[in-house]
Amino acid sequence: MGLFTKARSAAASQPAAKSKKSTTWVVGGDQGEKVSEAIHELCQLSAQEKAIAAKKKLFATVVAKHAKEQYVGDFCDLGVSPETPMVVQNQDGEKVTYVVQDRGGQYNVKDEQIEVLNQLLGPDRVEQLLYTEVSFGFDRTIFAIPGVAEHVEQALEQAIATMVEKRVLTDEQADSLISAKEKTSFKPGTLDRAADICGKDRVRLSQFLDAMGSSCTRYVKC
């Protein structure tokens, strides 16, 4: 079994993620009452937000159904997608926007979807609408082991040279075979070692986490 075939097999058989452990801090001490009240208010506001979101979803469903009908009708009549922004407006002048975005390249088409498409269009037509691409990468932690990157690079260079020699690839194609996107990032495990890195100094650690920016995303969520 080839290297890339093994990688594909491993990706297809990834085990389900294990549930994460948690840490609980019970409010107490001099600031206990103030913090406890803040937690209560956050939970109350979160509950109100959820109730509002549920109401919005209910009304949005009604509007979306109507907008979809208009969109489909105009699309069929015009032969092209209606001009944007697409607005649904009532007689009082209040309006909302109906958004349609093509993100087909971002998501995997499931087998159930293909079955429905086959029934609608036929397998041959559906096959023309879909394509499959496989992206291969290297495990960050293993690739960071000293010497691994160098050996992989040497092996790839030899393989590419062989393909050029056997005319599987032209020189131009060989030069374009591997693309690189350069970025600077924290090494794996940096956040796990942050306290030790900062000498277990609270002020320094706080500043360090801020300096990590998006590499250490932090937010409060109820």
Question: What's a concise summary of this model?
Answer:
By secondary structure, the protein is mainly alpha-helical. The protein has helices spanning 3-12, 32-78, 111-121, 123-129, 140-143, 148-165, 171-176, 194-197, 202-212, and strands at residues 86-89, 95-98. Among the domains are: 33-101; 104-135, no CATH class.
Can you give keywords for this protein?
single chain; 222 residues; mainly alpha; two-stranded antiparallel sheet; 53% helix; flat
Outline the secondary-structure elements.
Blueprint: H1 3-12, H2 32-78, E1 86-89, E2 95-98, H3 111-121, H4 123-129, H5 140-143, H6 148-165, H7 171-176, H8 194-197, H9 202-212
Helix pairs in contact: 3-4
